Amino acid sequence: MTLTLILLGLLCGPWLIATLLRLSPASKHLAGTIGVTLLFLFAGLGHFIVTDEMVSMLPEFLPLRRIAVYLSGIVEWIAAIFVLIPLLRKSTGWFLIALLVLLLPVNIYAAMMHAPAGGHAWGPIYLLIRVPLQTIMIVWVYYFAVRPADQ
């Protein structure tokens, strides 16, 4: 539950602060995009700090699981930076949405296997938190990375 709150704080925090400060709509939109960056920088970091736990989230029949964890962390870092570049923001946003959709089965598998990463050890009950969280992340990325700021 703590990890979920951290993820939500990173994602929504900059936008909430910008809103509380009554910044311009453009600044609030940028703050929402910065939240996407913070979320994926943090998530990517997890691939290097809790590597064994992340590896345990993947089925054993998959080859090179540790390398896949490291590479996916690097990909998340690159996407976190690219989403800040206006010219790359929309395509990176679509990429991140696809990534979140494609990783949902990994989270489901990890919960079913009670993987020790994050809340997955709670088992299938964790999906009651994870699936809505994943949905919030997808909607947030769409709103702040894919959709134009002036809409």
Explain how this protein is built.
There is one protein chain. The protein is mainly alpha-helical and 151 residues long. It has one domain. 75% of the residues lie in helices and 0% in strands. The mean pLDDT is 95.
The run of helices and strands is: HHHHHH
Low-confidence stretches: none
Class derived from helix and strand content = mainly alpha
- Main β-sheet, in a few words? none
For the termini, the CA-CA separation is 33 Å
**Residues in helix, %:** over 70%
Number of domains: 1
Helical stretch tally: 6
Quaternary form:
single chain
Strand content: under 5%
The number of E-state strands comes to 0
Report the mean per-residue pLDDT as an integer. 95
Computed over alpha carbons, the radius of gyration is 16 Å
Based on Cα principal axes, name the global outline. globular
Structure summary:
This protein has 151 residues and is mainly alpha-helical. It contains 6 helices and no strands. The chain has one domain.
Task: Give me some keywords for this one.
151 residues; 75% helix
Layout of helices and strands:
Elements: H1 2-20, H2 25-49, H3 51-55, H4 65-82, H5 86-112, H6 127-146
Helix pairs in contact: 1-2, 2-4, 2-6, 5-6
